[in-house]
Amino acid sequence: xxxxxxxxxxxxxxFSPAEAEETFSGFTSLVRLWRSKSKSPPPSWSDFxxxxxxxxxxxxxxxxxxxxQPLNFDVRLWGTEVVEVTGHxxxxxxxxxxxxPDRSDPTGVSLNHIKFARxxxxxxxxxxxxxxxxxxxxxxxxxxxxxxxxxxxxxNNDKILFxxxxxxx
Length: 169
Description:
By secondary structure, this protein is α+β, with helices and mostly antiparallel strands. 17% of the residues lie in helices and 35% in strands.
């Protein structure tokens, strides 16, 4: 694990795509699924079927990189559980530096989040973000996301798969 950035309580860490599945506590099954969809990561979004995500329904989000605009992403999918956590629905929206706050915010996407997503795509790493989220969930709980790159052509990473969970560290 290497830390990319810390912004307030948010932590952004990245890992080699060969990192042991057990490193990703709470996300082991998703990492195993992601790896199973391609002989050499990353897989394509089209390699997955709805039923593949049975244990993750509602927690999956997918961003499409916008050609020629490195910090712009179109939100293809924003999971229903993610809507519950963040309080807003982003499916079909464009994320760009002009419409995002500079600093990380526990209820939304920040400029740091899309810069980190771009870093994950450009470098082909796996990423994890986490923050102590809402007091109502109880002490010590974190909202944690894993970021996994996807490639439509097997060469260029052009989508990013997110999965979030509320976990105890």
